[in-house]
Fold:
Amino acid sequence: MHGFGMTTMRSERSSPRLTELTDVIRDRVRAGVDQAHTADLVKEALRPFLDVPGLLTEEQRRGDPERYLQHVLHVEPDASFSVVALVWLPGQQTPVHDHVAWCVTGVYQGAESEQHYRLCESERGPFLVPGELATNHAGETCGFAPPGDIHRVRNCGTGTAISLHVYGADIGELGTSVRRVYDLPVHE
Ligand SMILES: [Fe+2]
Structure:
């Protein structure tokens, strides 16, 4: 499936450690706290799995020279969360976007930059102003909840980057957790 500048693959097989991770996430999501707090709990749960060898199968670590690849690892049956692995070759990136729900990311391999933006209005129309630029390396996590989560993710390293993303949404139904893509001028 193509869309949002990426290709989506469905995974049929999970490693035992990946099943363990989805069990822990389920437990945190069922705590039933607000979106920002849920993102914090899931972030803590994800961190110890980022240096587990064999967490992903060889197929789930595969990239695509054309565009970054989304491997759907798990969609919770009650649609409360989804887990994907994104595989990026050097320089591959997302459009500027935001999400329909909370989102937690953790870098499994390589390095990713995350440029945040603020949406502003002028007489000529809407535009973006760059905000925080964060670089996350293997083992590092970040989490956020809408509103105000407009960002672009990019593989800023020299090798393949792999990151795990947990979305508080049903990726199986929506195909993506992206709410909107912002194709707007950027003013410093
Ligand atoms: Fe995102």
